[in-house]
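Aim 2 progress. For Bacteriophytochrome cph2, the working sequence is reproduced below.
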Amino acid sequence: RAKEGGRNCVRFFEKSMQEAAEARFNLERELKQAIEAERDLTLYYQPQVDASGRLTGTEALLRWRHPGQGMISPAVFIPVAEDTSLILPIGRWVLRQACHFLAHTDTHKHALRMSVNVSPRQFHQADFVSQVHQAVRDAGIPPERLTLELTEGVVIEDIQSTVLKMRELKDLGVRLSIDDFGTGYSSLSYLKRMPVDELKIDRSFIQDLSTDSNDAALVEAILSVCRHLRVSVMAEGVETEEQLHFLRARRCDGYQGYYFGMPMPGETLLQSLGD
Ligand code: C2E
Ligand code: MG
Ligand code: MG
Ligand code: MG
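Predicted structure tokens for this construct:
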């Protein structure tokens, strides 16, 4: 009887594995359709402000309105896209879309910046630099208004070739930022070798600033090193007044988080610029 139970258990396990594989396969198929039809994918924009609270730019954040499942978080579908190389057409679309939107904001007489997330696979494509060049040129925006957010995962692949490509991008005039800093394997010493304009301190360090003295010390150290290296610092996930005070007292350059605004549709952002 024990043997029979074991068999049932295996069968159950196989079934749930199969279901998970099917769900994943469907997600892939639907994501492929969405990007091919340029349908159901949309960009939201989250405000970025300076120490005085003035709007300086926005980060483009991808959203997928799934026909049956509602909004699916990029935290769920970006990893799928990365595994299947769907990230390549998606990334190209995001880049072009964000640049075009930035050109729109200019009619409102705001010289905003636009930050765009770039996945490691996207960055390491052979023609990535020319993709960026084309997107900027076609939208007619000044290149220095575009910031590419790279994660530490980009960097660890091969520092030599990564730095070379970063220089090519810098030659185009775009800005480079290291996203989610502190969560990966890279260290502050990399900043000396890389032509980086900005570093974004990961939300997990900002979250407990007022209660965790280790996080506070770390954030202080990052701010101090970056000031010496002339790298601008953006704090991610600022949600409270206390966090803002802590960061402002230590002269953090940029702020992004729910305290200042959620990611919002382009229309909503344009409306807020209008008045
Ligand atoms: P990220 O680039 O670090 O983006 C910041 C994430 O933190 C966003 O989540 C944003 O909505 C969220 N966030 C901002 N402020 C706060 C806050 O005060 N509190 C909290 N709890 N969260 C806050 P989102 O939009 O779900 O995106 C998740 C991740 O997905 C992004 O992290 C980025 O790594 C990736 N992603 C999003 N759009 C794209 C894209 O177009 N291309 C690529 N390659 N990745 C993308
Ligand atoms: Mg980002
Ligand atoms: Mg981040
Ligand atoms: Mg991220």
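The first strand starts at residue 41 and ends at 50. This observation will guide construct design in the next reporting period.
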